[in-house]
Design a protein that fits this description.
With 213 residues, the protein is α+β, with helices and mostly antiparallel strands. Helices cover 37% and strands 12% of the residues. The chain folds into two domains: 109 residues, Transposase IS200-like (Alpha-Beta Plaits); 90 residues, no CATH class. This is Transposase IS200-like domain-containing protein.
Length: 213
């Protein structure tokens, strides 16, 4: 199995999630477009119920920020990641443009992808995704440089931010139908404790060579 980190952001770094409805729609699309079959309905009003699917990918982690998204993916079928990301980007852009009465490109280009090719990268990458929301708080924005006044405050913020896979890894059902947690839970066990230790103890400068931004 190959694990890939995928990232895309808004064209000219524009906002791609204006409100919680947009974020919820994107999470819905993570489910809806992860299927070898065509989506049933991609209109803005449709939020279909759970249904039987033939998965293109396994989604091992995700995080939504104001102007970009992160995904951790492995393929179920040959070419599954390419097909899934294409469907996801086109489908969400269609929804967004319809809602906000705009036209044209929403994302800055092709989704960037990097293969998780080392043990060190593997052990960092899920934590990195889940720590991204710390950029939203002044006192935790410098988490990459280990300049955080309060790890407890940082963890509280992560528990309150529902637009990532963090809560599902902590055993709190958030969007459990979207992801598979087995791969990383087999490694980390109690994920909440694992991330807390990482935040306090790990030299985050070592992450820089792995980043896509």
């Amino acid at each position: 199995m190959e694990l890939w980190h995928a990232l895309n952001r808004g064209v000219d770094k524009r906002t791609i999630f204006e409100d919680s409805q947009d974020r919820a729609r994107f999470v819905h699309d993570l489910f809806e477009f992860n299927d070898e079959k065509a989506a049933q309905n991609t209109s803005r009003s449709n939020m279909s119920n759970l249904r039987s699917r033939s998965l293109l990918v396994d989604i091992h982690g995700w995080c939504l920020m104001k102007n970009h998204y992160h995904l951790l993916l492995s393929e179920r079928v040959d070419g599954g990641i390419t097909k899934f990301i294409r469907k996801l980007n086109i489908g969400y852009a269609k929804y967004f443009n319809e809602k906000y009465h705009r036209s044209g490109t929403l994302f800055q280009g092709r989704t960037k992808r990097v293969l998780i090719s080392s043990d060190a990268h593997f052990l960092h990458i899920l934590h990195y995704l889940h720590l991204n929301p710390l950029h939203m708080l002044k006192e935790t924005a410098a988490w990459r440089e280990r300049r955080i006044a309060s790890a407890a405050r940082a963890l509280t913020h992560l528990r309150q931010y529902r637009w990532s896979s963090y809560l599902d890894y902590c055993g709190k059902k958030n969007f459990p139908s979207v992801i598979t947690t087995t791969l990383f839970k087999d490694v980390f066990g109690n994920y909440e404790q694992a991330l807390a230790s990482y935040l306090k103890d790990v030299e985050l400068e070592g992450v820089q060579s792995f980043l896509l931004e």
